[in-house]
Write a structure and sequence with these properties.
The protein is an alpha/beta fold. The protein contains 4 helices and 7 strands; from the N terminus they run αββαββββαβα.
Length: about 180
């Protein structure tokens, strides 16, 4: 099935939840309301003709100039039929939360934790939503576009001095 056909099926099934369909370089992006993301994903997974049984990727995106600052992008693929579609759900800055899809694809677990850790997007119903890349006591979300490029002044992670010492000989060992 072609990606635009999949988008058409979504529009028929969820006429008020599909906000926009765009196509670019043989990829189809379907923007949907965040409130129905779990229901839409479950439909794409369970519908026999679609069988989107593989979540290739899930990531956060930051658009500080937009009304809905964040997006969560779901790259879905059918191993059975060899077709794919990308879902996008807009998430506002004043309530950066969306329902978890771990109940549909268990592989979303790590991806949702990463998006939460890097962007501050909360995934409601996630079984273990804690930091995965940054230390537990880290302040801020490093992938947001307003986060300082060199990190926050005076904020160094635990073990910074030990890591510097560990890499003190990198140049003489031709590692860098």
């Amino acid at each position: 099935m072609e990606p635009l056909e999949i988008a058409g099926r979504l529009k028929d099934k969820f006429p008020f939840e599909v906000l926009e369909v765009k196509s670019f370089r043989d990829q189809v992006f379907v923007s949907v309301k965040r409130e129905k993301i779990l229901e839409i994903c479950r439909y794409l997974y369970e519908e026999p003709d679609l069988c989107m049984n593989f979540l290739s990727d899930l990531c956060g995106v930051d658009y500080p100039e937009r009304k809905h600052r964040f997006e969560v992008v779901y790259n879905l693929y059918s191993l059975k039929y060899n077709h794919r579609v990308l879902l996008k759900a807009q998430v506002p800055q004043d309530d950066p939360s969306i329902n978890s899809v771990v109940a549909v694809w268990n592989g979303a677990n790590w991806h949702e934790r990463e998006a939460c850790d890097m962007y501050g997007i909360v995934f409601n119903g996630h079984p273990d939503l804690r930091r995965i890349l940054m230390p537990d006591d880290w302040d801020g979300f490093p992938q947001r576009k307003d986060y300082p490029l060199r990190g926050k002044e005076g904020a160094e992670y635990r073990g910074f001095e030990e890591t510097k010492e560990l890499h003190a000989h990198d140049k003489e060992w031709n590692i860098v």
